[in-house]
Amino acid sequence: MLILIINSGSSSVKYQLRDTGKGDALAKGLVSRISLDNPLFEHIASSGKYEFSPQGKIDHKHAIELILLALVHPKYGVIENIGQIDAVGHRVVHGGEEFSNSALIDARVMDCIRKCITLAPLHNPANLMGIEACKQVLPDTPQAAVFDTAFHQTMPSYAFTYALPYELYEQHHIRRYGFHGTSHYYVAHRAAKMLGKPIEQLKLVTAHLGNGASIAAVCYGKSVDTSMGLTPLEGLVMGTRSGDIDPAIAIFLMERKNLSPKDIDNLLNRKSGLLGISGISSDLRDILSAADSGNARAKLAMEVYAYRIRKYIGAYAAAMGGLDALIFTAGVGENSPPLRAMTVQNLAFLGIALDRAKNEKAVGIEMNISAENAFVKTLVIPTNEEFVIAMETEKLIEAA
Predict the structure, then answer these.
(1) How far apart are CA 387 and CA 395, in angstroms?
(2) Is residue 157 one of the residues assigned to a domain?
(3) Does the residue 176 lie in any domain?
(4) Is the separation of the CB atoms in 378 and 135 below 8 Å?
(5) What pTM, to 2 d.p., does this model score?
(6) Are 306 and 208 in contact (CB under 8 A)?
(7) pLDDT tens by residue, 247-286
(8) Catalytic: which of 86, 148, 225, 286?
(9) Which domain holds residue 308?
(10) How far apart are CA 174 and CA 165, in angstroms?
(11) Last residue of a domain, one of 118, 147, 176
(12) DSSP code per residue over 46-76
């Protein structure tokens, strides 16, 4: 089955065309700077890379049209006509409590995604724009929504409930939801295959470390806790996000510095994290380089970043009553041996130990980087959220 995967942002559309029969990505690309001057389109297939800048400003519908034209392009295309596309799978960030699984998109699903805009104001509107654009350009092609939050709907109530007046949960659905669900799901299942054991017998900690970062406790195949909460701001230190802080800090700053709620949102989401501590960059590579050159704040940023991850690993091992494997994934987790080494310091008591040579070699590749005597395995697994979206979409189409 040929599945077009769409990950629509407010100013970009990322895509892949996958053949689920072969498990391959036939083509992938990105339309960026949507609704801005000088938009850019990148398309990559086996025949080469196709790149150009469309004239004038474009919207999401135009972006989808460009993608479809590239897929059937005489030189760079991979299919003869768009009728060969069997379905479209959309990444949708927030499904609230409505969805514990992916869903074929109909009027009810669209309405639920809209209702969740208050929970994900930066993401769900953009996801909806991508869905609407595909409906216009591919009106007869079935579409599916694969939710970032769905995998974490197995969390027990004591893990997702905040210690706030309970009516806030009842009236406004304020609770922990978690994100990066497709990534945590994928790497957990890959880990089970690498370890040669049923996932139903494993206790795993999955660390999705990128510019946005989250960690999950996956016990016997189900998410039982995760670091992101009502929004993607809670939890680990991230590129520009603060992660866990004393909530009274927001009140303190609003009073002392006369900051508005919007100012606080901007501070915590865009000016904090690695960027805020280091004052240099939100990119871990820049911070590592500066730390190696003796920059004290860059070194501190690295230490805080790794320490927060380490605390969550220990906490989730305790929550599950044991640990079989730790998995690193996403841009930082897959590509930064120094960060992985820093993170697992002082975790030998859990049975975690790295093979230094294997850790240095594991850059962007799937590998067991554990020392031979390590009781708990440490794995590097490149994430593949598009694969999950394609498989989920195919499953829904076949069941319809």
Answers:
(1) 12
(2) no
(3) no
(4) no
(5) 0.91
(6) no
(7) 999 999 999 999 999 999 999 998 999 999 999 998 888 9
(8) 148
(9) 196-380
(10) 10
(11) 147
(12) TTEEEEE--SS---HHHHHHHHHHHHT-TTT
